[in-house]
């Protein structure tokens, strides 16, 4: 029965209780691979004591921590570079347009601004009514454009012909403003998308790697603490046995002395 409860560790070649170690087949693949990296001839049926297993468990924990830290630092560096990146230019639209504004463009803006106001409509309506009233009623003997007001039609046509391209010039400037704003929005959105992708990668690394590693590390810590507890119990048992033997030897010496 005692032989069935003991096994020989393939590392220190000492006999141990089965409860004080593990068979390689019962270990996690990562820990088993660490052991096989140093002992390629090890088999899954081999036994390893807790004292030697502790080394590889600590190596496994250290490897997972270093891997998580390395990946986190890599993502943080990418995020930092993305936030500090100045490889695009944000244009101040108003300042840029004001700096390049010519006299003709200022005039076109003023004409378009005035032509699209109620003041222009009121003044133009008053001029039309006054023109037609003066020429239709021959007021003060003035009759330079009789009905059907051919001169008025000619003037209106000339004004429309000149006003239309001036207003189009102002609309072209408005189109330039919209284009610059669109380019700024594009660059901002592009940078935001890049930063969001890195943040998603960081969250994915946290949920897919670091959290499972944390749970696995906690599991290994519990196993390591259990192994340490077993070794402490074994030390206490050895000290208790040694104290008991010393006490028995002392009693034996006292008995021999009393017999003499």
What does this protein look like?
The radius of gyration is 47 Å and the shape is rod-shaped. Strand 1 and strand 2 form a beta hairpin. Helix 4 packs across helix 6 (about 150-260). It contains 6 helices and 4 strands, in the order βββαβααααα. Strands 1-2 form a two-stranded antiparallel sheet. Strands 3-4 form a two-stranded antiparallel ribbon. With about 260 residues, it is mainly alpha-helical. The longest helix has about 110 residues, at about 150-260. It has a domain at about 95-175.
Strand tally = 4
Strand content: under 5%
Distance between the termini: 45 Å
Helix and strand run: EEEHEHHHHH
Largest sheet geometry: 2 strands, antiparallel
Low-confidence stretches: none
Major sheet strand order:
1-2
Helix content: over 70%
Please state the average pLDDT score: 80
Class from secondary-structure proportions? mainly alpha
Name the shape in a single word.
rod-shaped
Number of helices: 6
CA radius of gyration is 47 Å
Topology:
Elements: E1 6-8, E2 15-17, E3 21-23, H1 29-38, E4 47-49, H2 50-84, H3 93-99, H4 103-115, H5 118-137, H6 150-259
Antiparallel strand pairs: 1-2, 3-4
Helix pairs in contact: 1-2, 2-6, 4-6
